[in-house]
């Protein structure tokens, strides 16, 4: 081979060097942003195709095609669908191990599809809507349960298409709760796609946060329309009826609490001032003051943030005004589109989803079972814990109502819910315990969370006192030195009639101190003993042993010490491996709480490395943070836009319970920063970078708690 | 002075911390994220390094990034986007490394960026203990250079010659790795292991792929390659040249594949020997410092040591991209202080996380699984482990700090008796599940190494398992001897690894054999274990007979039957490797 020395001058490389240097300059960076916007608008094309290999078409087979996780197998000359055995910690799919391709002659087959609510989340597999529907329909019906937690529109349509191989008489679709969270992940400032970020920037520039929310709503509505169009076509071609169950959600207790996005001037400070007033009014049980504060928040944020709607709903409910409470709660759910954009929220059916479902039913002639109408017809007040375990998952009574009404919609004449076999006490107790874990960990609520926890745990123990052993297992797992799955409590619980699955929060490894406190009190109140003594001192001893402050120090900014683990941006809060996106804790609320585990009388030393956001720019900018422990003042620390390390000795800790709430209150952002913050965030998105649409009040590199 | 080195956004991201020029901590992000070859910003490795040094972000005096983002962008622009990709990628952004370091790691200290090959060179020279040395760097590509030659002395590294992209030995090796049906970016060592089974029948064809030039130069015949714009590294011309279609991963391995592997390996060895001879003359130095991903080819390294012109050769334990963090940190130290970062050679690789035996015992007590506690009788533990190994057990050995680099060297290792003919199959069946042709490596007591292996036990490659050599042992060692009579031993020095050496000594006492089979403690597709929890997960889902976790010994028979299923449900299946299996990662 003739040699052509690679050291000789390469004009292409010289030009590449020149362009790289230019792009690395501030001007070049700006030019790159413009080029990306041109591309976003379709005016700057992508390069053509190279010599890549072509994708292979899907192989054609003669037999049936898989339905979701159920694959076709041939047994004794007949086709069956079988799924892999569920894991011992549960999974997202219905428990039915197998069902035949061909239904028994003389039976009428119904295929039941939907999301976690349809799958009987927290009760499954012992109680499911499909199982209850089968009872409600009675003999002569065969109900195939294909419900799936985390079902999305795309997979729903695909499952429907495959399910038609079963030649059902009817399909029951119970969907709509997941769309606000799962259907538009690309409209998030954290979604790792440059074009998606630019699209979000465009929407924000054109219409502010409402513009982005409206884009998400429009997109969800269109996706739902397309999906139901496809399902309707498939069903019509197969001569299959469709029944839609329209979801309803808990509007009484669950709140979609989110921080307020950037507001110009002193908007953020005023909003949080009103929020503090609302919290005080809530503590004082003063619905008038609460409503006033919530309305001020709405004025400031323009209604884009769900928190204020939620507070207003609570105020109206406390005042006994059900219709306005329901209106405010629905506005809260509608405004919560941006948990998907920024912070984790609850999956709940919103107005967009409901309209899409009703429109599809009207257009395609689907029958409907409207839970909103059914529940409100039986309750005068705000739909709440009679029907719901949590934000959207149904109680046994709620499930029974769905079953009976759906059976009716399918043409079966059946009696009331009471005629169904219902739920066994162990399943009821386990579901209530799971609801308590969700309440403590999964979502934040406006107002004290403890009454919700106490009620759920009380109901669990009332349903089946034997659930106390599972509660003890949960306490042991959370207070242990390693992940729950490695602990002896895991093995004990595996053999329990109250077996806790991933859906019950078994995997979550934050301390969730309010839950642990509530568990101890509930168990002690019922006289439960561990190793011959009451629960609280036993749990306290474990917590101190495995999580207590040491001379070497415990960094409270890390799992499991975050008091509210989900008060973090969406990607961090949803990463099960807790892999941090950032090397430090970022405060997206003006108050951050951490769990300090220490014995009574200890005067722990706190070494903090904190800074205000670097966007505060001026290095001379100074402020102070205040530190409290269980509400008692512990001191003040200076902070600046550069890291600073400070040490504070906490006053001796009072009270025997070792889980202490260490709270830091951060200063509000300067107005000059707030004025340009949203524009700066949009600018970053334009350049394809992630951005925060919400104030980050401060960063904590570490908060090291040491015993003296 | 605390200097943090960072490598990221390429192959394996990593962090390393130098305090006053001494290496305090270093680890790759993949060990924490549990995603093999994780290239993301090393957030967890960063926190680990600071914790290990008992400092926080305010104590950092400088941060060093291991490549020049603008020069890399130039090469990316030169390449253009690949098929199916647009320009609109985050990589078209030379500000990304600094932004990540400032915004996501929160580092305020001054940032210094060093060229990729300079970082590699420094990762070898400044940790070699040499006063002066010739420098050789060979890898896939960094910014532009794919092979660099130079000379280092004191604080100076002069890279006087380079071969530029798209010509490179690493690229050639990766291309044929893909052609032979293995994953590019990670399967290269399988080709190296396959080579001894073949004959060099395709040397002519391989030589048509690369042309030798003057000095350090060579060129790839580009019509055979498609890695700049395509989705595979080879072009139809290369397929035509070899006369056979590329092997698909699931296809059987035939003589043809073995012969191509052998031919490739031989050609690369010969080229590097020739270029090393030129480098020796040009640099005028007696010793060689060698780094870059190609330096993981331990067969080449062995030949360089035995047949090459250099008196001593130093290859760092992490010669690939993870090691770039060490080099960048050392360069920053030199730039800021004007002094060399360290004088002593790096004698071990134990710079990762370590765990207190009492903490481990607490964890084990909470599992409820019976275990033997050797905290008060550590000598007995070595005896017990050796006895079990002599009886044929596979023992997982987790003690002390985790190793830096891709090799397990006694901190996170699986051990077995190398004399048993069935041990390779048993190890594969129990845990490793890897290709039957791939050999396992031995580890040997330093005082016995020369009796059994044709290598210099005082050599600088020996502690890091970076050299193959002829087995000359009077013992029959079928489980660690490759088909060509070679092995890749680690020499264990009791002065550095007393507890690991004690196991070897006890094993010799039982069997007369001072050698053990050693392989990394992980299952296929997962990074080597880092924490006691990782170790329990791996132990619980494999058929390893016993686990040494610091001072505790757990027998497989004591494990709950339900653990494998529970662990699978908890952890899920291994995450797919972060790198493209078909194309060398250029971005």
Q: Can you walk through the features of this model?
A:
With 708 residues, chain A is α+β, with helices and mostly antiparallel strands. Helix content of chain A is 42%, strand content 14%. Chain A has 22 helices and 19 strands. A five-stranded parallel β-sheet of chain A has the order 5-4-6-7-8, sandwiched between helices. In chain A, strands 11, 12, 14, 17 and 19 form a five-stranded antiparallel β-sheet that branches. In chain A, a hairpin with a 2-residue loop joins strand 9 (529-530) and strand 10 (533-534). In chain A, helix 17 runs antiparallel to helix 19. Mean pLDDT of chain A is 90; it is low at 45-60. With 587 residues, chain B is of the alpha/beta class. Helices cover 34% and strands 17% of the residues of chain B. An eight-stranded mixed β-sheet of chain B has the order 13-22-21-14-15-20-16-19, sandwiched between helices. In chain B, strands 3-2-1-4-5 form a five-stranded mixed β-sheet. Chain B has a five-stranded mixed β-sheet with strand order 8-7-6-11-12, sandwiched between helices. In chain B, strand 1 and strand 2 (14-19) form a beta hairpin. Chain B is globular, with a radius of gyration of 23 Å. The two termini of chain B are 32 Å apart. The model of chain B has no long low-confidence stretch (mean pLDDT 93). Chains A and B meet through helix 1, helix 2, helix 18 and strand 19 of A and helix 2, helix 3, helix 4, strand 9 and helix 13 of B.
Features:
heterodimer, A: 708 residues, alpha+beta, five-stranded parallel β-sheet, five-stranded antiparallel β-sheet, 19 strands, 14% strand, B: 587 residues, alpha/beta, eight-stranded mixed β-sheet, five-stranded mixed β-sheet, 19 helices, 34% helix, globular
Distance between the termini of chain A: 74 Å
Q: For the largest beta sheet of chain B, what order do the strands appear in spatially? A: 13-22-21-14-15-20-16-19
Count of helical regions of chain A: 22
Structural class of chain B: alpha/beta
* End-to-end distance of chain B: 32 Å
Oligomer: heterodimer
If you compute it from the alpha carbons, what radius of gyration of chain B comes out, rounded to the nearest whole angstrom? 23 Å
Into which percentage range does the β-strand content of chain B fall?
A: 15-25%
Structural class of chain A: alpha+beta
């Amino acid at each position: 081979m003739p040699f052509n020395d690679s050291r000789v001058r390469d004009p292409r490389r010289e030009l590449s060097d020149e362009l790289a240097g230019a792009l690395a300059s501030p001007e070049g960076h700006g030019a790159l942003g413009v080029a990306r916007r041109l591309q976003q608008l379709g005016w700057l094309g992508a390069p053509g195709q190279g010599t890549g290999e072509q994708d292979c078409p899907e192989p054609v087979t003669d037999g049936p095609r898989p339905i979701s996780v159920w694959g076709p197998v041939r047994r004794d000359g007949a086709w069956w669908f079988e799924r892999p055995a569920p894991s011992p910690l549960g999974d997202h799919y219905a428990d039915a191990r197998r069902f035949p391709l061909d239904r028994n002659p003389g039976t009428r087959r119904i295929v039941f599809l939907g999301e976690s609510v349809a799958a009987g989340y927290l009760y499954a597999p012992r109680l499911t809507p499909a199982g209850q529907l089968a009872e409600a329909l009675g003999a002569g019906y065969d109900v195939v349960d294909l419900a799936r937690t985390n079902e999305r529109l795309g997979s729903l349509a695909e499952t429907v298409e495959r399910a038609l191989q079963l030649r059902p008489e009817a399909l029951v679709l119970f969907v709509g709760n997941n769309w606000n969270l799962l259907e538009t992940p690309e409209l998030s400032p954290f979604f790792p796609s440059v074009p998606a970020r630019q699209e979000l920037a465009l929407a924000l520039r054109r219409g502010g946060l409402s513009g982005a929310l409206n884009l998400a709503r429009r997109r969800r509505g269109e996706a739902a329309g397309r999906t139901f169009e496809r399902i309707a076509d498939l069903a019509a071609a197969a001569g299959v009826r469709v029944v839609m169950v329209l979801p309803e959600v808990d509007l009484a207790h669950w709140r979609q609490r989110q921080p307020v996005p950037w507001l110009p001037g002193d908007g953020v400070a005023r909003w949080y001032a009103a929020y503090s007033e609302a919290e005080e009014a809530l503590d004082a049980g003063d619905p008038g003051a609460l409503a006033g504060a919530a309305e001020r928040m709405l004025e400031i944020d323009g209604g884009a943030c769900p928190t204020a709607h939620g507070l207003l709903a609570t105020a109206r409910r406390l005042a006994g005004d059900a219709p306005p409470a329901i209106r405010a709660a629905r506005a809260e759910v509608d405004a919560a589109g941006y948990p998907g954009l920024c912070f984790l929220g609850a999956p709940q059916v919103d107005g967009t989803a409901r309209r899409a479902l009703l429109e599809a039913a009207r257009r395609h002639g689907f029958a409907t079972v409207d839970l909103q109408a059914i529940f409100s017809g039986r309750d005068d007040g705000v739909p709440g814990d009679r029907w719901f375990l949590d934000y959207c998952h149904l109680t046994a009574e709620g499930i029974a109502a769905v079953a009976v009404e759906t059976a009716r919609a399918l043409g079966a004449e059946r009696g009331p819910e009471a005629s169904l076999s219902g739920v066994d006490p162990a399943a009821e107790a386990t579901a209530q315990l799971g609801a308590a874990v969700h309440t403590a960990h999964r979502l934040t609520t406006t107002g004290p969370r403890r009454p919700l926890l106490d009620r759920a745990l009380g109901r669990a123990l009332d349903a089946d006192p034997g659930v106390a052993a599972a509660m003890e297992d949960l306490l042991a797992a959370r207070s242990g030195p390693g992940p729950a799955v490695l602990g002896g409590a895991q093995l004990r619980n595996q053999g329990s009639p109250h077996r806790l699955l991933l859906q019950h929060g078994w995997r979550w490894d934050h301390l969730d101190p309010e839950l642990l406190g509530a568990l101890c009190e509930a168990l002690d109140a019922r006289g439960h003993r561990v190793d011959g003594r009451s629960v609280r001192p036993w749990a306290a001893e474990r917590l101190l042993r495995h999580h207590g402050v040491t001379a070497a120090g415990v960094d409270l900014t890390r799992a499991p010490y975050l008091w509210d683990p989900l008060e973090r941006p969406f990607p961090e809060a949803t990463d099960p491996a807790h892999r941090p996106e950032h090397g430090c804790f970022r405060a997206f609320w003006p108050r951050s709480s951490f769990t300090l585990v220490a014995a009574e009388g200890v005067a722990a030393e706190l070494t903090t490395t904190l800074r205000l956001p670097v966007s505060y720019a001026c290095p001379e900018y100074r402020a102070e943070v205040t530190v409290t422990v269980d509400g008692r003042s512990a001191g003040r620390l200076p902070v600046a836009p550069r890291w600073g390390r400070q040490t504070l000795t906490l006053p001796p800790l009072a009270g025997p319970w070792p889980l202490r709430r260490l709270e830091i209150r951060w200063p509000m952002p300067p107005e000059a920063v707030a004025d340009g913050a949203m524009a700066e965030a949009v600018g970053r998105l334009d350049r394809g970078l992630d951005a925060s649409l919400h104030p980050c009040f401060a960063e904590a590199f570490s908060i090291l708690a040491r015993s003296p | 002075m605390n200097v943090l080195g960072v490598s990221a956004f390429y192959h394996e991201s990593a962090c390393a911390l130098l305090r006053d020029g001494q290496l305090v901590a270093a680890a790759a992000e993949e060990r924490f994220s549990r995603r093999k070859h994780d290239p993301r910003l090393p957030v967890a490795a960063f926190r680990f390094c600071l914790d290990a040094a008992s400092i926080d972000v305010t104590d950092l005096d400088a941060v060093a990034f291991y490549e020049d983002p603008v020069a890399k962008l130039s090469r990316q622009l030169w390449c253009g986007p690949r098929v199916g990709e647009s320009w609109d990628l985050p990589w078209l952004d030379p500000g990304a490394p600094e932004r990540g370091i400032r915004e996501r790691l929160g580092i305020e200290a001054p940032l210094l960026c060093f060229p990729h090959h300079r970082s590699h060179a420094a990762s070898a020279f400044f940790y070699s203990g040499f006063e002066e040395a010739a420098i050789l760097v060979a890898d896939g590509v960094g910014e532009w250079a794919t092979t660099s030659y130079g000379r280092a002395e004191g604080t100076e590294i002069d890279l006087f010659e380079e071969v530029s992209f798209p010509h490179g030995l690493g690229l050639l090796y990766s291309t044929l790795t893909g052609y032979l049906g293995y994953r590019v970016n990670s399967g290269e060592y399988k080709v190296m292991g396959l080579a001894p089974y073949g004959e060099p029948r395709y040397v002519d064809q391989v030589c048509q792929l690369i042309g030798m030039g003057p000095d350090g130069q060579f060129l790839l015949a580009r019509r055979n390659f498609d890695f700049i714009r395509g989705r595979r590294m080879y072009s139809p011309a290369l397929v035509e040249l070899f006369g056979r279609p590329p092997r698909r991963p699931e296809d059987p391995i035939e003589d043809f594949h073995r012969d191509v592997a052998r031919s490739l390996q031989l050609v690369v060895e010969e080229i590097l020997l020739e270029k090393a001879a030129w480098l020796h003359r040009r640099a005028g130095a007696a010793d060689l410092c060698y780094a870059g991903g190609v330096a993981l080819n331990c067969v080449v390294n062995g030949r360089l040591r035995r047949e090459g012109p250099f008196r001593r050769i130093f290859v760092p334990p992490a010669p690939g991209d993870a090691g770039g963090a060490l080099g960048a940190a050392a360069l920053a130290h030199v730039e800021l202080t004007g002094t060399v970062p360290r004088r002593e050679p790096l004698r071990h690789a134990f710079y990762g996380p370590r765990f207190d035996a009492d903490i481990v015992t607490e964890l084990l007590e909470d599992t409820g699984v019976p275990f033997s506690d050797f905290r008060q009788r550590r000598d007995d533990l070595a005896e017990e482990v050796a006895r079990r190994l002599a009886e044929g057990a596979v023992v997982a050995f987790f003690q002390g700090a985790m190793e830096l680099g891709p090799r397990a060297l006694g901190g996170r290792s699986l051990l077995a008796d190398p004399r048993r003919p069935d041990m390779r199959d048993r190890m594969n069946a129990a845990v490793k599940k890897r290709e039957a042709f791939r050999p396992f490596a031995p580890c040997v007591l330093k005082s016995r190494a020369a009796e059994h292996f044709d290598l210099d036990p005082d050599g600088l490659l020996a502690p890091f398992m970076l050299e193959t050599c002829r087995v000359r042992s009077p013992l029959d060692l079928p489980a660690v001897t490759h088909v060509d009579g070679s092995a890749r031993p680690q020499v264990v020095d009791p002065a550095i690894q007393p507890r690991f050496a004690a196991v070897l000594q006890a094993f010799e006492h039982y069997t007369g054999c001072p050698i053990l089979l050693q392989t990394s403690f992980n299952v296929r597709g997962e990074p080597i274990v880092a924490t006691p929890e990782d170790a329990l997960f791996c132990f619980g889902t494999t058929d390893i007979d016993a686990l040494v976790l610091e001072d505790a010994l757990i027998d497989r028979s004591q494990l709950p039957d339900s653990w494998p299923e529970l662990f699978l449900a908890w952890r899920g299946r291994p995450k797919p490797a972060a790198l493209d299996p078909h194309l060398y990662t250029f971005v």
